[in-house]
Amino acid sequence: METIELKKLIQKEMEGFPGNFAVYLEDEKENSLEIQADEKWETASCIKVAILIELFRWVNLGEISLADRIPFTEENHTLGSGIMRYLTPGTELNIHDLATLMIIVSDNVATNILIDFLGMENINSTCLNLGLEKTKLKEKIYFKPNTPTVIGETTCREYIQMFKLIKNEVYGPQATEDMLAILKNQNFNSILTRFLPIGLLQSSTPGEKPEIEVGSKSGSLKNCRNDGGIVFTPLGDYYIAVFTKDFSDPYYHMDHISNSWAPRINKLVFQHFLARGGSL
Prior knowledge:
Helix 1 (4-13) runs antiparallel to helix 11 (263-275). The longest helix has 14 residues, at 48-61. It contains eleven helices and ten strands. A five-stranded antiparallel β-sheet has the order 2-1-10-9-8, sandwiched between helices. Strands 3-7-6 form a three-stranded antiparallel β-sheet. The chain has a two-stranded antiparallel sheet with strand order 4-5. It has one domain: DD-peptidase/beta-lactamase superfamily (Beta-lactamase). The chain has 280 residues and is an alpha+beta fold.
């Protein structure tokens, strides 16, 4: 059932946004909301969730272990987000560490290493097999002068389907536990969390879970700012994806127009969800 009331609130809130946006929401009671949810969108680093899923498919099959180590070679060096580009080629990390870096700090070198290790065709084949027909990894991450970077494509609906597959144990309970643990440590989730209550997102007691957790992956390029994932609350969980594009500012900074407008969406969703006792 589509949540019309919330949809109207979001559309009203986003009036005047100087760009284009898409939204897809789902809760655990078969309620949903969609705004341009099936439009193809540049993924930027959001495609890294598809890579994570393929990685844990291999782990589930017993083809690899998370403890296996892979060297960082010069051919996988690239610019952009992450820390591995500052390391010395030849450095070896285990697969779990590479996956963690790829997700929580969006490390582009770690991503390129895993793309080579898993194979781009295998990643895309698994997307198709899982019903992600509009999702595709197009190339490794390289930034070329005077050439637009194109990493992948997906839709808001299919992006949420990735998180549903993870949460619903597509490759077993251990894989789900491991993937969610990585996604919950996300460092770049401002579109989803910027206007949520900080006291609920952080625990004041070391080792204690906060009341609200977010497992997510964002993606940013000059032509898009995206975020999506799962919001875990005491009243139940919901899935949210918010993609933006067609804005005029290509630079990366916290005051980017998408970073000030798009977070308003999840603030509305969060308040609505709690007010309705855990329902959209």
